User: What shape does this take?
Amino acid sequence: MKNLFSLKQEFAVVTGALGKLGPIWIETLLEAGAKVFALDHPEAKISQGYKSLQGRFDKQHLQLAFADVTVREEVEAVYQKCLDVFGVPSILVNNAGIDQPPGQPDNACCLEDIPLELNLKVFEVNALGLFLVTQVFGGQMVKAGRGSIINIGSLYASVAPDSRLYDHIECDPPFLKPPAYGASKAAAVNLTRYLATLWASCGVRVNALSPGGVSGDQDPDFRRKFCERVPLGRMAEASDLSGPLLFLASSASSYVTGIELVVDGGFTAW
Ligand code: NAD
Assistant: This one.
């Protein structure tokens, strides 16, 4: 049974590597035996989470490169680098994404006034960037005839944000979770099904992993209301996400393609 989850001989690419969840996916893959090529935006700073991985894993196992996932030339340049270092990847985790948590100035507008550019930016990164990286890296996985692609979605791919979770936040007009966020994640999940059916005969599986709210520096009122809203009664911890990723990345899920694995403590069941 242990071999079913082993990623020895595998080589993974993870986008959005320097954010909150990137290091969780990377650590999971490394600990299962894979080599990891981590990718993030040229302006992204090395996070504490990523730094601690660099302290534990050498360059034979973990490398970092920079590209904007919405710029084809940058993604292709990183693909070349990745090819030179580790070869064609067998696992791709499309994790790069943008959202707008409460407290950012752009949030302070009503739905009717949300600038089109803001919606476009969210779609550009969360859906089109994911597509572009998949074209470049996934296309080579198809040529190699094997691989597992995991697109990171969100619980908001399938449900609308519950505005009661945010109604304690003092701001006028009231805080709005960006509508483009869930819509872009729904697009990512649907694209997952498209790619899964297209590439199934080429040996490449494509699945989505949609986390619920992950525990972090959220304000206490939000946390309390969110946890009350979750059947399992709490937010997700890093350890809750590792198993689902490892399942989709490894041969434990060899007959699974085109699904959305929702890891939300039951949030969307209510
Ligand atoms: P984060 O903001 O901490 O990290 C996102 C990373 O993506 C950052 O390092 C950022 O630099 C990178 N990125 C953004 N735009 C990019 C671009 N154009 N090119 C390359 N890299 C780019 O977010 P996170 O919390 O780590 O979330 C990771 C993924 O998980 C996202 O897709 C997010 O939507 C999804 N998600 C997160 C949660 C959560 O609670 N944190 C819940 C559900 C889904």
User: Anything to note?
Assistant: The two ends are 34 Å apart (CA to CA). The chain has a mean pLDDT of 95. The CA atoms of residues 16 and 206 lie 18 Å apart. DSSP finds seven helices and seven strands in the chain.
